[in-house]
Amino acid sequence: MPKLLLAAARTRPVRASVSALPMTHKMVRRFIAGPDAPSALAVTKSLRDQGLAVTLDVLGEDVTDRAQAAATAAAYRSLLGSLSDAGLADRAEVSVKLSALGQALGADGDKIALENAFSVATAAAEAGTTMTLDMEDHTTVDSTLGVLRELREQHPWVGAVLQAALYRTEGDCRDLAGSGSRVRLVKGAYAEPASVAHPRKTDVDAAYRRCMEILFAGQGHPMIATHDMALVADACALGRARGDWELQMLYGIRADEQRLLASAGVDVRVYLPFGTDWYGYYIRRLAERPANMLFLLRHLGS
Ligand code: FDA
After folding, report:
1. Does residue 135 line the site of ligand 1, with CB under 6 A?
2. What are the residues whose beta carbons fall under 8 Å from the beta carbon of 157, sequence distance 6 or more?
3. For residue 282, is it within any domain?
4. Could you say which residues form the signal peptide (predicted)?
5. How many domains would you assign to the chain?
6. What is the interface pTM, i.e. ipTM, of the complex?
7. Which range marks the domain in which residue 102 is found?
8. Of 77, 152, 184, 269, which is the active-site residue?
């Protein structure tokens, strides 16, 4: 079902109808802080005051223009300066998609994305915070982990996302479970072929549990990113014995549980996207839960 929804989302009529929703619409604002950095900073402050840490995402992906990739890197650097000025950098970091920094720009894509990502990581270090590389579809994993390796030579705290849905990920978890490593473990939001990813959700869930155990057995800082409360309970049990880990959830999903867990002493971080290029992110959130998509279709049809 999610695969069908993601395929439908690529068609022109669906894209046109959904993109016509105003950003102010509550169906969009549920998942997205707002159109610009000031709105994201306001939400960050509010989440911080509720005991939650934040990771901020400047929305945008699959950039095919070098100037746009440079502009996105500049937007991140400016955001990091604002976080520092507002006294929020101890509770807020940034999440970056390499495809927004130029990864898809042909043969030089990796080099351009690395240069842009390096400038963002340097700005994060100056602000006193960290950066994590998001993971996109399976064709980008080798490139993203290659950029991560280079960034970590200078900035060993740069984190990465690994997707339990991919067969390769248990091995990647072992490789990245060493000291100083920060890994955000997710199930995976992209429609992937069965040649590279578990087709059945129950197998993804089982793989997630195995990956989580590998990360908790290692020396790094596991970032357990899920709204699956059975996995959250397992993570809390594993984390109690070990310390130095965090739980992460998306803005707009299980907000009550985020606050409850934080007040119970769990380190909880909220992934908070903002910006005007919200279509791709929003559609992945709808596809994760068919009820969300049906709600939207009813709205568009009314
Ligand atoms: P699952 O899909 O089983 O959901 C468990 C429960 O959570 C559902 O039953 C429902 O109650 C609730 N829920 C989940 N999604 C919902 C939604 N959209 N709307 C309403 N309720 C929902 N993926 C990726 O491929 N690359 C990445 O870089 C990232 N980054 C990332 C960061 C963070 C902090 C998080 C939490 C997630 C990501 N993801 C991601 C997305 C991830 O891969 C996955 O698609 C979602 O987290 C949904 O999977 P769950 O683990 O929540 O489990």
Report:
1. yes
2. 130, 180, 182
3. no
4. none
5. 1
6. 0.99
7. 33-277
8. 184
CA-CA-CA-CA torsion for 99, 103, 105, 109, nearest 10 degrees?
170
184 is a catalytic site residue: yes
Q: Is the CB of 163 under 6 A from ligand 1?
A: yes
Best substitution site from 186, 212, 258, 269 to test ligand 1's pocket, by max atoms within 8 Å of Cβ?
A: 186
Contact 153, 197 (CB under 8 A): no
Q: 134 in ligand 1 pocket by Cβ < 6 Å? A: yes
Task: Using alpha carbons, list the distances in angstroms from residue 79 to 53, 98, 119, 249, 267.
Answer: 16, 17, 13, 21, 23
| CA 50 / ligand 1 centre spacing (Å) | 22
CATH of the domain at 63: 3.20.20.220
Residue indicated by tokens 């007040």: 263
The reply to whether 134 belongs to the active site is yes
Q: What is the mean pLDDT of each run of 10 residues along the chain (302 residues)?
A: 70 75 76 96 98 97 94 98 98 98 95 98 98 98 98 98 98 97 97 96 98 97 98 96 94 98 98 93 87 74 59
Whether 109 maps to a domain, the answer reads yes
Residue 97, Cβ neighbours under 10 Å: how many? 26
